[in-house]
Amino acid sequence: MLHEQEAIVVREALLVIDAQQEYFSPWGKWVVEGGPEALDRIQMLLSAFRDAGFPVVHITHEALDPDSPVFRAGSEGVRMHS
């Protein structure tokens, strides 16, 4: 419940989901087909949204199992690809 505060309404935002090393690095375990092209598009969108002052939200996931071979917490695979 809002008390004497105004809600901030944002109509435009960019959600970047799972742009993680495990998918996009050559050494990743689940490299996606067309990854380099997808990264080019993601970078273009990131620049456009940031230049326009719109929010950018990055969604990532990590494996719950500490012995998982992919997306293990703290591993290079869960880091955002840059």
How would you characterize the overall build of this protein?
This protein has 82 residues and is α+β, with helices and mostly antiparallel strands. It has one domain (14-78): Rossmann fold, CATH 3.40.50. It contains 2 helices and 2 strands. It has helices at residues 21-24, 35-51, and strands spanning 14-17, 56-59. A two-stranded parallel sheet has the order 1-2. The longest helix has 17 residues, at 35-51. The termini are far apart.
What topology emerges from the helices and strands here?
Blueprint: E1 14-17, H1 21-24, H2 35-51, E2 56-59
Parallel strand pairs: 1-2
Keywords: Hydrolase
GO molecular function: hydrolase activity
Protein name: Isochorismatase hydrolase
